[in-house]
Design goal:
By secondary structure, this protein is of the alpha/beta class. The chain folds into two domains: 220 residues, Rossmann fold (3-Layer(aba) Sandwich); 66 residues, Alpha-Beta Plaits. Helices cover 34% and strands 27% of the residues. It contains ten helices and 13 strands. A six-stranded mixed beta sheet has the order 5-6-7-3-8-9, with helices on both faces. A four-stranded antiparallel beta sheet has the order 11-12-10-13. Helix 3 crosses helix 4. The chain is elongated, with a radius of gyration of 24 Å.
Length: 327
């Protein structure tokens, strides 16, 4: 990775009339990483991409893409990134292949290079059989695939993809993420929003946005620890008494202990690796008959909901305002 960020937002705010789309957002994205951006519907994900691609200009703050101001990009900068928008913006009365050929022409690709690249991408997005159909006559999922192929035509070092897997079946979603990781491994940079919270696992770092504000930014593991107050460890014993739970809580080995059932508790620790053997040793000295002890890995839906709730509480909002559903 380069030390200089490929993407930079510093204290960026965007308002349209009385509506604030993005509020005081700061982030940096570096070469060779997949940066995921998740948040509830209307939280500001698409607005952030539009600021980064120069479609919108901030009211406050600084935006830099590949070292330049995206609202006044030179042609060289424009040709160095691909953009897959959330909505279909190509030509419905042209065929799938004609749409790709038109976009390739915008990038100055010669006919021979263009045809080879288009054929490869049509196979990749599984549209080869539909290549001669009009874009208006294919499904919404197929239109998403046309947009993705168009954004990749010129092999850009930077790719913006706004919900690229929306409306795509699970098998093809997996194939797309394999391609994203392959591009990342080639040193390319990807900024991806997603409505599938679980896809955060595939990213190197993840930003979580709510009501226009960035509420968390970390690796997937770091977000888990932030949301849950550390790593979670499930401990099952023949039985748990109140004194045994309190003794574990007071041992200095854990941050907190939550009973799950009469035979199981969940302990939250800073790092499960060294904590598990230490807890096991401690419990054995107290005579606790431990049957199972293992790390519990909450799924990203749980992590996301917890982060939303924490931000709602920090703002003094009601629990029902936590916007727990990403899209």
């Amino acid at each position: 990775m380069s030390n200089e960020p490929v993407l930079l937002m510093e204290h960026v705010t965007k308002r349209i009339g009385e509506t604030t789309l993005v509020e005081d957002v700061s982030l940096q994205v570096y070469q060779g990483e997949i940066f995921g951006f998740i948040g509830p519907s209307g939280s500001g994900k698409t607005s952030a991409i539009r600021l980064l691609t120069g479609v919108l200009e901030p009211n406050e703050g600084t935006v830099r893409v590949l070292g330049s101001n995206p609202t006044h990009p030179g042609r060289e900068t424009q040709e160095r990134f691909g953009y897959m928008p959330q909505l279909f913006v190509l030509y419905p009365t042209m065929t799938v292949r004609e749409n790709l050929s038109f976009v390739a022409g915008l990038y100055g690709m010669g006919w021979r290079e263009r045809r080879k690249r288009i054929d490869a991408l049509l196979h990749f997005v599984e549209l080869w059989e539909a290549r001669d159909r009009l874009a208006r006559d294919v499904s919404g999922g197929m239109q998403r695939r046309i947009e993705l192929a168009s954004s990749l035509l010129h092999n850009p070092p930077l790719l913006f993809a706004d919900e690229p897997t929306a409306g795509i079946d699970p098998v093809l979603r997996g194939k797309f993420w394999e391609e994203f990781r392959r591009l990342r491994d080639q040193g390319r940079t990807l900024f991806i929003t997603t409505q599938y919270v679980g896809e955060s696992e595939y990213c190197d770092r993840v930003g979580v946005i709510r009501k226009g504000r960035l509420v968390a930014l970390d690796t997937p593991l770091g977000l888990r620890r932030t949301a849950m107050g550390g790593d979670a460890v499930d401990i099952q014993a023949r039985s748990w008494t109140t004194s045994a739970i309190q003794g574990l809580a007071d041992s200095g080995l854990v941050n907190r202990v939550v009973p799950i059932s009469p035979t199981e508790v969940r302990a939250y620790v800073n790092d499960s690796g060294p904590a598990i053997p230490s807890m096991l040793e401690y419990l054995q000295t107290t005579g606790c008959d431990v049957e199972r002890i293992e790390e519990y890995r909450p799924n990203f839906d749980e992590v996301f909901v917890e982060l939303m709730q924490q931000d709602a509480e920090a703002r003094g909002e009601r629990a029902g305002d936590a916007d727990g559903q990403a899209s």
